[in-house]
Amino acid sequence: MLSDLIDLPEGWEWSVYGDTPICPDGYEIEVDGSCPDGHVSPLLAMGLI
User: Fold this and answer.
1) How many CA atoms lie within 13 A of 28 on its CB side?
2) Counting Cβ atoms within 10 Å, is residue 41 exposed (0-12), middle (13-18) or buried (19+)?
3) Where does residue 16 fall: left (phi above 0), alpha (psi -120 to 50 degrees), or beta otherwise?
4) Which residue, 2, 17, 27, 31, could crosslink 35 as a Cys pair with Cβ 3.0–4.6 Å?
5) How many angstroms separate the CA atoms of 9 and 14, rounded?
6) For 1-49, how does the pLDDT look when each residue is reduced to its tens digit (9 = 90+)?
7) CA-CA distance, 26 to 5, in Å (whole number)?
8) What 3-state class would DSSP assign to 9?
9) Using CA atoms in the order 9, 1, 39, 26, what is the torsion angle rounded to 10 degrees?
10) Residue 39: its pLDDT value, please?
11) CA-to-CA dists, residue 1 to 5, 38, 49, angstroms
């Protein structure tokens, strides 16, 4: 699981399965995507993807 390997920034959390991030607004997004409100996946922002 990604959640075992990567700590997300404050306000972010991992989905129930630990494979996709959930933004501070509550949207579950793809690891290489963004939410409708414009939050970019932390993995993308960190340059991991």
Assistant:
1) 7
2) buried
3) alpha
4) 27
5) 11
6) 888 899 999 999 999 999 999 999 999 999 999 999 999 999 999 999 8
7) 21
8) coil
9) -90
10) 96
11) 7, 25, 15
- Element of type H or E holding 22: strand 21-22
Rounded to the nearest 10°, the torsion over CA 23, 14, 1, 43 is 20
Q: What is the pLDDT of residue 2?
A: 85
Tokens read off for 20: 């996709």
Residue listed under structure tokens 């501070």? 24
Nearest-angstrom CA–CA distance, 4 and 17: 11
Return d(Cα 45, Cα 8) in angstroms, integer.
11
Residue 1 is predicted with a pLDDT of 82
